[in-house]
Amino acid sequence: METFTDVLLVTANVGSLFDNVGEIQNDWLQELYKTIHSYNPQFIALHFQEVGGKDYMANMGYAENFFWSIESSEEMKDYDRVCIYVDNHFQAEESFTALGSMYFIHKTLENIHQYDFKAQDFKAVSGQNKHVGSLDGVTTVEKEKFPKNFWPDFKWSRKGFMRTRWIIHNQALDLVNVHLFHDASNLIACNSSPSIYSANRKNALTYVINRISDSRFTPQPFFLFGDFNFRLDALSLVQHLSTSAEIQTVKKDSSNEVERIICEEKDNDHQVLLHIEDKLFAYMHQAVFREDNGRALLKYDKEVAAFHDVVGEEEIKFPPSYPYSEENTKPTQYMNTRCPAWCDRILMSHAAQPFIHRRDDDDEKTVNYNTVGPNICMGDHKPVFLFFSLKTNEH
Question: Please, where are the H alpha helices in the chain?
Fold first, then answer.
């Protein structure tokens, strides 16, 4: 007999919630609850990155309140089992990832078990299981920071992944929270196609997929969701955006290093169409990233293609998830710091796809891949969610 469990997966880079404590958080939570209420899922997985924000030493206290406010909220009262894993142990530089994962199980969902990686066995989930701090020795989660020797020229970072494994009605699944490397400089990103940063992310994601598929544990279908930091291919995008412009490269006096790239329109009083510096990406016609959900630019979103033999993704029908303005009055505008991109994603292994129940193409309720709070300020990243019915067989 087939059973169907409504599942909601959400990924959110919440760094800016902590860097602007209190200003955005309430609206952010209300939008999350609105999404939960409209789908009424039986199983919720929330994957957070950059818990504590950039100034995590000062902000980590707020992080515990943030997780507590979700867990104890009136909106979540029908979820009688909760599992929380928050790596906020920043004193341990070698292993700190700033990742947080929360899992909520609705009172109507009976047949659910979680894997203990040490005992190599599944155990029924009951009550509230909270692990905040160092996750060393917590046997129901596997957490890893990317090895330092990957990129010797990289300064210390918090990037890594965290995995939990579940059985929902006899179907085992891995849920993996991931945070990959960002673009440090817009100018370097424009240097080559693919960029050096894109290569770093490819190495990191290959590492994650190899780790969750290796022979230590029986490989299972998986969902991989987090801040992949995937960017548009900058070199070809800039060429596309400036076809009718003259491109000037300004170099520093002291060295041959590029300081900025300026694209001026050939006519129209030589208006500056595009201005790029290390941390500036100012494009005059920003609406192109929002019109038709930025669909015309999806062809420059190439990074996931390298993994098409392993993972798939629902069709993207939402605008780039980053970098949104952090001003309350500009919830749909992008900041001029980075080229807008679909950084926040939910990918699934090919083995997981048959378990996604599709009634027909017109049925919106079946599968929905979208952003949370499209018209509300949610910080620099809009959370991304995937709602679907998990199709399983009862024995």
Answer: 15-19, 25-39, 56-71, 186-189, 196-213, 234-241
- Eight-state DSSP code of residue 181: -
Beta-bridged to residue 356, according to DSSP, are 390
Taking only the tens place, the pLDDT of each residue in 48-71 is 999 999 888 888 888 889 999 999
User: How far, in Å, are 108, 109, 138, 141, 161 from residue 164 at the CA level?
Assistant: 22, 18, 11, 5, 10
pLDDT for 153 equals: 62
SS3 180: coil
Question: Helices (H), strands (E): how many in the chain?
Answer: 6, 20
CA angle 113, 116, 118 (to 5 degrees): 165
What angle, rounded to 10 degrees, do the helices at 56-71 and 25-39 form?
A: 30
Instruction: Provide the token pair at 16.
Output: 């800016």
Q: Which residues contact 146 (CB under 8 A, 6 or more apart)?
A: 157, 159, 160, 204, 207
pLDDT tens by residue, 315-333: 999 999 999 999 999 999 9
- Quote the CA–CA distance of 175 and 221 in Å, as a whole number: 9
Cα separation of 17 and 117, whole Å? Answer: 32
Instruction: Determine the pLDDT at residue 156.
Output: 64
**HEC states along 81-97?**
EEEEEEECCCCCCCCCC
Q: At which residue do the structure tokens 């980075």 appear?
A: 338
**Sequence-ordered list of residues with C-beta below 8 angstroms from that of 379, at least 6 positions apart, any chain:** 13, 14, 15, 16, 17, 20, 24, 28, 324, 326
Q: What is the pLDDT of residue 180?
A: 95
pTM: 0.96
Q: How far apart are CA 372 and CA 353, in angstroms?
A: 23
- Residue 198 is which amino acid? S
What gap in Å lies between CA 272 and CA 262, rounded to an integer?
Answer: 7
Which residue ranges in the chain fall short of pLDDT 50?
none
- What pLDDT, on the 0 to 100 scale, is given for residue 297? 95
Phi, psi of 26 (to 5 degrees): -65, -50
Ramachandran quadrant class, 89 (left: phi over 0; alpha: psi -120 to 50; beta: rest): beta
| Residues in a beta bridge with 389 | 6, 357
Which SS3 state, helix, strand or coil, does residue 216 take?
A: coil
Detail the DSSP E strand segments found in 267-312: 272-277, 280-283, 311-312
